[in-house]
Amino acid sequence: MATPLGARGASSRGSAARARHTAPTPQPATGTAPIVLSGAHVVLPTGTVPDGRVVIDGTRIAATARDDARVVDARGHWLVPGFIDLHNHGGGGASFSGTAEDIQKAIHTHRLHGTTTLVASTVTDDMDFLVRQAGLLSEFTEQGDLAGIHFEGPFISPCRKGAHSEELLRDPDPAEVRKLIDAARGRARMVTLATELPGGLDSVRLLAEHGVIAAVGHTDATYEQTVQAIEAGATVATHLFNAMPTLGHRAPGPIAALLEDERVTVELINDGTHLHPAALELAFRHAGAGRVAFITDAMDAAGIGDGRYMLGPLEVEVSEGVARLVEGGSIAGSTLTQDRAFKRAVTVDRLPVEDVVTALSTNPARLLGISDKVGSLSPGKDADLVLLDENFDLKGVMRKGDWVVDPQLA
């Protein structure tokens, strides 16, 4: 989403290299023999099992262990499914609007923080650039490094543009929306739209027909207009509460419509900056854990730190972990990682661990249509998991049976 100051030309406008780029080789978890992670609090779809166990055989979770399985003591830890991020612009000093090297760096950065399944989000830019970037990101999806592409902009409201460049915004013309999803070669997963703009409802219908999630966001819509968008097929609220009218008692706006409809999944950025704890509690109480998806909306500085960055043509200052436009002060994405979102939800917001797992793994997997592969620690699914200590700090990350972060358990 943003690149280090002065580096945009080298990152987001640079080489369109198509060679496969790989992160440092993860450490094999098993070799040829299965392992059994034993003694942890294991969070399953049916609830938490104290002193539970998870069997990993190759790249998948198994129902039973073979005689040659190696038992690993995970007592004192929590074992949860790998995190899934639906909305992420980059990290590690790199952007999903950048080169192939940038993309791989951002992916690996978030894997180190427990995100084993990741949708890459673009930011508003000119259409030709977005078309080219869609082609590059689709290659990472085809090789299994990404779960798809999310286009955030340019079809959003100038009244609620946030950290998007106003001169590059445009109405959601269905022909242009179709151009982007065609460029993604079947790998487009979500498009954020201000559905009240001309062409908005037709674009929602087009996306629904092509199996792409239509998300209501960066919108100035009324309550009634948002209801129309949901009826047309919109099923996600892009970072609920942010970049949309506030909830009013006479003009409830999009927030009320999105919270009340059972068909809508609401994204929440749980970094302590984007949402007051009371707003987070309101969303969980009204929508229920089954309709919440925690996202990062991360930009380049995630996993790096404070400094000056560029968000397209806009300069961003990251100070004490909060990213804001230098001109105007609007929040410009986040520096959040999903392990921090998990810990905050449990230790600060006091949400049940099971609800947090639902918001970080189960619901995003369902929304993406991949819950047969990921999203829970169920036999037959990919061996994607996160090991947390008793304070909910990340200690280990496994993806498809290989340790990305090795907990060094005996």
Q: Tell me roughly what share of residues is in helical segments.
A: 25-40%
* Top CATH class of the largest domain: Alpha Beta
- Which value, in Å, is the CA radius of gyration? 20 Å
Instruction: Count every beta strand, where a strand is a DSSP E run of 2 or more residues.
Output: 23
The share of residues in extended strands comes to 25-35%
What would you call the structural class?
Answer: alpha/beta
**Amino- and carboxy-terminal Cα gap:** 40 Å
The mean pLDDT is 91
Number of domains: 2
CATH architecture of the largest domain: Alpha-Beta Barrel
CATH topology of the largest domain: TIM Barrel
CATH superfamily of the largest domain: Metal-dependent hydrolases
The number of helical runs is 10
Largest sheet: 9 strands, mixed
Low-confidence stretches: 1-25
Give a summary of the structure in a few sentences.
With 410 residues, the protein is of the alpha/beta class. It contains ten helices and 23 strands.
Quick tags:
410 residues; alpha/beta; TIM Barrel; Urease, subunit C, domain 1; 8-stranded parallel β-sheet; 10 helices; 26% strand; globular; disordered N terminus
Task: Give me the secondary-structure topology.
Blueprint: E1 3-4, H1 8-11, E2 27-28, E3 35-44, E4 47-57, E5 60-62, E6 70-73, E7 78-81, E8 83-88, E9 90-91, E10 94-95, H2 100-111, E11 115-122, H3 127-142, E12 149-152, H4 174-183, E13 188-193, H5 200-209, E14 213-216, H6 223-232, E15 236-237, H7 253-260, E16 265-269, H8 277-287, E17 292-295, E18 307-311, E19 314-319, E20 322-325, H9 338-347, H10 353-368, E21 385-388, E22 394-399, E23 402-405
Parallel strand pairs: 3-6, 3-7, 8-11, 11-12, 12-13, 13-14, 14-15, 15-16, 16-17
Antiparallel strand pairs: 1-18, 2-23, 3-4, 4-5, 7-21, 9-10, 18-19, 19-20, 21-22, 22-23
Helix pairs in contact: 3-4, 4-5, 6-7, 9-10
Family: Belongs to the metallo-dependent hydrolases superfamily. NagA family.
Binding site for substrate: 163, 242-243, 250, 274, 331-333
Active site: 297 (proton donor/acceptor)
